[in-house]
Amino acid sequence: MIDPIEGGVTAPAGFKAASVHCGLKSDGASHDLAVLYSEYPTHSAAVFTTNDVKAAPVMWSTERVRADNLRAAVVNAGNANACTGARGLAATEQSARALADQLGLGADQIYVASTGIIGVPLPVEKIVAGVEAAVPNLSHSAAAGQEFARAIMTTDTMPKSVAFRFMVGKTEVHLGGAAKGSGMIAPNMATMLGFLTTDAVISRRALEAALRGSVENSFNRITVDGHTSTNDSVLLMANGAARNEPIEEGTQAFAAFCKVLNLVCLSLAKMIVRDGEGATKVIRVDVTGAGERQQATLAARAIANSPLVKAAANGGDPNWGRVISAAGYSGASLILDKARLWIGDLLVFENGMPAAVSTAEAAARMKGTDICFRLDLAMGSESDTFWTCDLSKEYVAINADYHT
Amino acid sequence: MIDPIEGGVTAPAGFKAASVHCGLKSDGASHDLAVLYSEYPTHSAAVFTTNDVKAAPVMWSTERVRADNLRAAVVNAGNANACTGARGLAATEQSARALADQLGLGADQIYVASTGIIGVPLPVEKIVAGVEAAVPNLSHSAAAGQEFARAIMTTDTMPKSVAFRFMVGKTEVHLGGAAKGSGMIAPNMATMLGFLTTDAVISRRALEAALRGSVENSFNRITVDGHTSTNDSVLLMANGAARNEPIEEGTQAFAAFCKVLNLVCLSLAKMIVRDGEGATKVIRVDVTGAGERQQATLAARAIANSPLVKAAANGGDPNWGRVISAAGYSGASLILDKARLWIGDLLVFENGMPAAVSTAEAAARMKGTDICFRLDLAMGSESDTFWTCDLSKEYVAINADYHT
């Protein structure tokens, strides 16, 4: 039994959330500060951006997760607090201290995440005031979970939230999550933030293994624009409130937990792609028949990152030569006479030349909101899948004057 | 003395060109087939796409250049003859044979290049008829050189042609070139074709060394969309008609030849970027202070390929955080506290944080048609430079329905 439920991050027992408008987003209404709190001690695991340029909150939170004593998180949208030097680090610490003081915790129990523009000092007094306004409203309600997902949005057009309940032995356990991300989305993470909560009892080691595996096949397999951000992070907190038998690696319970975690991460990742800046379509890129998985990964990533492939998808144009040629420069081993390419269920290329199908048949497979390219390398049995969105004029419009 | 002269590929003695409309471009008027002919035997050197998916003419011409017995080239726009299998190879050979028959040469003396859509069979009967119509019009005139540059265009909006005269000892020598390219432009090469001619007497070995060096710092340093094409090639033919003292590697004359060749290649490369699909601005990315050149190359390429950097340039938006963060994920060694970034002459980032300049000052450096980002890594003395263009709504419009 894996059932979808309401609430996102507040679906698991013992997790509360609240959000307010603290003044970082320029419109006077949208929430831009969110707090997440666990009533119980937690184990935590997290993954962070691979960008050498790391935002202040990423540096702070990396240390906090390592110490594994987290109880709460403070998240702001509208300012990334990246490339802001010592002043930025001090602002992160002040944000953590403000939330810790309100909750009677230590600052080192607070995870901090920021998203928004790079290189602008964070107006920390707004964060402090926002935290003070938010904490009294902390709630376990499903509405509070939904609001959390909405408050962390930047150029996102819709909140991204999901939760499931499932059984560990005879105990019902819950796992929920929220994410934001729309531009600067590239494999290995994205300008994306993810917050995952569970009331499962699970060892820290198992938690880390589960998160690593799930992120690799979800958030690390999506791309909007190939630009890896400075602020990416995904946090998974487990507070044990469900009182199930402890989950350890290698057990059936662990497999069940991973299955749901995969579902949560992949659901959120696909929501990010669907809400890619200016996106009108989701493009799934399957590469099969690779000799090694790395070969499939290289080819799928190059196809998903090609602006020409993405622009063709936007126009519903079955210009599959762009797909093949992207695989060709990807670094993956490719023997043209062996490779076969499908658009949806339609074989368009084999034996080194076009298959006998009409442009109209191919164009029909490019018209909907979901497009799938499948490239069979016919050199082995390994495969990989990436998801991306189309490249539209709106992407350019959004990014040509995000700053000013 | 290095003087610009008229004519492009026909500027050097003994080179003739002609072009016609053979019916590959859908409008009834534009020339889409061009022929280049040397009255004298030549030495040749060429570089080809690194894409594993190579078009039929690339496979054919690679062999012809290796044999070093070229006398002429036939070039078509409107169809890439890529992903077309054995039928595509036969079409290339037929094109070569048609031109050879007209000129009284062997088919193995003909270089073939194609550009246009991938995966559509080449209507070779149109090429054959076009060749027969073009050859009687072969001319050494400057106008014929200009027409050649125009006939090889696909989505280009302007022809790209340049030529210089210079002295080798006491002999006047000429070097000219034409190129096409607008989309699918990425380092290493592009959907670009380049044709370079010289009447210099130069050994084949020296010719190859000169071309390799010049291409590396020009055509391999430009990017429009990061998509390396299936058809890229640059050909350099030397027919010795100038009767100068033979040029050998390591001599003063070789240095002079390379200097002019660099000038020709870089001029053509910058024309390609300026004419990038939908481009309104040229962006120069200088990375200095690298410990090894490879580090500078990685950072400059990542910045030049970032759609977010390119979209910001389109909007004249001084969102320099995107530049720093692109360097951060590039794989280049970067110590944020050491790095400094300039937009034009304005220092915007140092000591890990924003410099004390106003957004208005920075925005002023983003307004013109030429933008320069300079990133100093402060870790050594190596550097590299890439050129790219901005990302505009027009890029998407052009590529959303190029096919249909």
Task: Explain this structure.
Two copies of one chain form a homodimer. With 404 residues, the first copy, chain A, is of the alpha+beta class. Chain A has two domains: 2-274, L-amino peptidase D-ALA esterase/amidase (4-Layer Sandwich), CATH 3.60.70.12; 282-400, ArgJ beta chain, C-terminal domain (Ubiquitin-like (UB roll)), CATH 3.10.20.340. Chain A is 33% helix and 26% strand. The first copy, chain A, is built from eleven helices and 17 strands. Chain A has helices at residues 56-67, 85-103, 124-134, 142-151, 204-216, 252-274, 293-305, 307-314, 321-329, 359-364, 393-400, and strands at residues 2-4, 15-20, 33-38, 43-48, 72-79, 110-117, 160-168, 171-180, 193-198, 222-223, 233-238, 282-290, 340-343, 346-350, 353-354, 370-376, 382-389. In chain A, the strands form three sheets. In chain A, strands 10-17-12-16-13-14-15 form a seven-stranded mixed sheet. The first copy, chain A, has a six-stranded mixed sheet with strand order 1-7-8-9-11-4, sandwiched between helices. In chain A, strands 2-3-5-6 form a four-stranded mixed sheet, with helices on both faces. In chain A, strand 13 (340-343) and strand 14 (346-350) form a beta hairpin. In chain A, helix 1 (56-67) crosses helix 2, helix 2 runs parallel beside helix 3 (124-134) and helix 5 (204-216) runs parallel beside helix 6 (252-274). The longest helix of chain A has 23 residues, at 252-274. Chain A is globular, with a radius of gyration of 22 Å. Chain A starts with a strand and ends with a helix. Chains A and B meet through helix 2, helix 8, helix 9, strand 15 and helix 11 of A and helix 2, helix 8, helix 9, strand 15 and helix 11 of B.
